[in-house]
Specification:
eight-stranded parallel sheet, three-stranded antiparallel sheet, 21 helices, alpha/beta, 534 residues
């Protein structure tokens, strides 16, 4: 037993006599062996890591292999269809489309067509050829003096600060080339958003970056000045985001550069804090008043909200406030719990927030049932990367889709999942000036443009195969899903559907309200978030 215990030190201890023996032959070899002995001595005497203390020198192999484990798994062990969070096949599709390479696949599908939750599109024997150039949706037509014709695929909110300056420039230049919109994320509008003139959706969150007072509250004058810029097409009030709903954020003062401080309107030398909740409103009625105020201050541009659905009763409270006041946002972006972020606590990323499909259907149904759906457009965001992902969202009630990580792949992201470390290997999610130089703006902007264009063409092909001329025609009846019993069912038979105005007169409705409407709708209140008795 003693011999076995001693043996773990041998690889380290032999380096000392080996260095002495090697000296007459090679001074370099002897020096290297001496360095190894010193490293082993450091391991033996340190008190922080048990493996290194018990296995001097060789224990370092464990930590080295652990460090490169994600790369080893991705390159050698990961299955092509393993979605963590995006599969190799999904990434390869984006890379091919963004580079104008062959995105076709030979020898058939690698998917198991008979596994639970397998989905497919019900095609038609009378296919058509829709024009993807016509795939745009008018937002704000009813109550805005400056409505916007929005593409069906746009760049989701990713802030300058989370992404590098070159990444922001490439995204915006690509958006300008393809005539689609670029959401700023909550970090406001920077010089890098403005350099290439692409259409912007200005996102305003709880920190009110770009339109805040010195103490972090909303500043109407600063907002109006920025919102009236011709480049800003819509304004989005973020209530929550999919990856960390109900959680604020902090950009450490060490990362607050002069450019970030200028864009956000915060001082340098201090942490940049995004509170968990807004200070400009505290109830559903106050939120709608705030939306109306922003529309006026912007000169009549579309104003909407973005949220990851949490407690259904809180969303119902907002819908009731819309019915009561007849004040409505121009759009609602539904983010899913599977959405991405630069950094989020594990518990929040894995266990907080309603997934996109459930949240999207809830929002669509409630607006239909309240007689408001024709006044409010719906966007969908959360792991949207392919034309089929878009078709599914459209079938569930969305009018358009936003994609974040898909466009990051177009920039060159390799899913290293190091966004929170500032060590992004491709220069996409970092403020390191050396790393971010990997993004050549003109080249990556073309890839952003091509990914968008080719995905829209793929969507047109899908809709055409189903015999549909317009994205507005697709419904749950056009999608098939295999349920847990192995049976193929249309998506329409697996999702709840409300009739127009059904929520306004549920007693007179022929069909009872499905859950969660039956559980929470009647008890929710327009005066406060959630149940009136809570």
């Amino acid at each position: 037993m003693a011999r076995q215990s001693f043996s773990r030190y041998l690889p380290w201890l032999v380096t000392a006599p080996a260095a002495i023996v090697a000296w007459p032959v090679s001074a370099w070899a002897s020096a290297c062996l001496a360095v190894l002995f010193v490293l082993g001595w450091i391991d033996f005497t340190q008190t922080k890591q048990a493996v290194r203390r018990n296995y001097p020198l060789t224990g370092r192999l464990r930590y080295g292999l652990e460090y490169i484990r994600p790369e080893l798994r991705q390159y050698f062990l990961e299955d092509d269809e393993e979605k963590l969070p995006f599969s190799r096949n999904q990434r390869a599709m984006v890379y091919a489309r963004s580079k104008m390479q062959n995105d076709k696949r030979g020898f058939g599908s690698v998917k198991d067509m008979y596994s639970t939750d397998t989905e497919w599109l019900a095609h038609s024997l009378l296919p058509v050829q829709p024009d993807p150039a016509s795939f745009r949706i008018q937002v704000g037509a009813a109550q805005c003096t400056q409505p916007y014709a929005l593409s069906l695929l746009n760049i989701s909110g990713m802030s300058f600060g989370a992404l590098s300056p070159n990444a922001i420039q490439a995204l915006n230049r690509g958006a300008a080339m393809g005539q689609f919109a670029h959401d700023t994320g909550e970090g406001s509008i920077s010089v890098h958003h403005r350099q290439h003139g692409g259409d912007l959706i200005w996102q305003i969150a709880s920190g009110y970056f770009g339109c805040r007072t010195a103490d972090g509250r909303f500043d109407p004058e600063r907002f109006s000045l920025q919102a009236k810029s011709p480049q800003v097409k819509m304004i989005e009030v973020k209530l929550s985001q999919g990856a960390k709903p109900g959680h604020g954020g902090v950009l450490p003062k060490a990362k607050v550069s002069a450019e970030i401080a200028e864009a956000r309107g915060v001082p340098m030398g201090q942490d940049c804090v995004s509170p968990a909740r807004h200070s400009a409103f505290a109830s559903p009625l106050e939120l709608l008043a705030f939306v109306t105020q922003l529309r006026q201050l912007s000169g009549g541009k579309p104003v909407g909200i973005k949220l990851c659905v949490g407690h259904p009763a809180e969303w119902f409270s907002l819908v009731k406030a819309m019915v009561q006041t007849q004040q409505t946002p121009d759009f609602v972006v539904v983010d899913g719990g599977e959405g991405g972020t630069g950094a989020a606590p594990i518990e929040f990323a894995d266990h907080v927030g309603m997934p996109l499909r459930d949240g999207l259907r809830l929002v669509h149904n409630s607006l239909v049932g309240a007689g408001l759906r024709d006044r409010i457009k719906i966007g969908a965001s959360g792991k949207v990367i392919s034309a089929f992902d878009m078709a599914r969202c459209l079938a569930l009630g969305a009018d358009w889709c936003n994609a974040g990580r898909g466009f990051m792949f177009a920039l060159g992201c390799i899913q290293s999942r190091s966004c929170h470390t500032d060590h992004c290997p491709t220069g996409v999610a970092t403020q390191d000036p050396v790393r971010q130089r990997a993004i050549v703006v003109t080249d990556k902007a073309e890839r952003v443009f091509y990914f968008h264009a080719n995905t829209m063409h793929a969507l047109a092909d899908l809709l055409g195969a189903a015999g549909l001329q317009s994205p507005s025609e697709i419904s749950p009846q056009h999608l098939m899903v295999r349920n847990g019993q192995g049976q193929a069912r249309s998506l329409a038979s697996m999702v709840d559907t409300l009739a127009p105005d059904q929520l306004l007169s549920p007693q007179g409705s022929k069909a009872p309200l499905p859950s969660p409407f039956a559980d929470f709708w009647e008890g929710s209140s327009a005066q406060q978030w959630g149940l009136a008795s809570a």
